[in-house]
């Protein structure tokens, strides 16, 4: 599957993930900044549900995602949520 690594998702994390659907391979993980810090709960929830619709298997949001968004993503992805940030190591198998 695919891994999407973002610095900061200025165009929108769901829009970036949607571009990968052309590869006809599942998105195994999105890691990096989701650019949702300070966003409304509605906007965060919409982005999260769109990623679910796109079949994103796991998420590892960091820096510009914001704590409110990280909490929502953790609730939705449960064991497929990975803590990440500066110095984190993520093993891909």
Q: What is shown here, in short?
A:
This protein has 93 residues and is of the alpha/beta class. It has helices spanning 13-20, 41-53, 67-77; strands at 2-8, 27-33, 59-62.
Explain what this protein looks like in three dimensions:
- This protein is an alpha/beta fold and 93 residues long.
- It has one domain.
- Helices cover 34% and strands 19% of the residues.
- The protein has helices at 13-20, 41-53, 67-77; strands at 2-8, 27-33, 59-62.
Task: Give me some keywords for this one.
three-stranded parallel β-sheet; alpha/beta; 34% helix; globular; 3 helices; 93 residues
Average of per-residue pLDDT values: 95
Count of discrete alpha- or pi-helical segments spanning 4 or more residues: 3
Structural class: alpha/beta
Q: What's the helix-strand series? A: EHEHEH
Strand residue content: 15-25%
Q: How is the largest sheet built, in terms of strand order?
A: 1-2-3
- Count of β-strands: 3
Stretches where pLDDT falls below 50 for ≥5 residues?
A: none
- Rounded to the nearest angstrom, the radius of gyration is 12 Å
Largest sheet: 3 strands, parallel
Cα distance, first to last residue?
Answer: 10 Å
Could you give the topology of this structure?
Elements: E1 2-8, H1 13-20, E2 27-33, H2 41-53, E3 59-62, H3 67-77
Parallel strand pairs: 1-2, 2-3
């Amino acid at each position: 599957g695919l891994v999407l690594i973002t610095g900061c998702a200025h165009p929108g994390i769901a829009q970036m993930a949607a571009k990968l659907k052309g590869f006809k391979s599942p998105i195994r993980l999105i890691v990096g900044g989701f650019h949702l810090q300070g966003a409304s709960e509605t906007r965060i929830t919409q982005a999260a549900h769109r990623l679910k619709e796109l079949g994103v298997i796991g998420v590892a949001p960091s820096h510009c995602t914001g704590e409110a968004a990280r909490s929502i993503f953790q609730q939705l992805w449960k064991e497929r949520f990975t803590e990440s940030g500066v110095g984190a190591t993520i093993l891909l198998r």
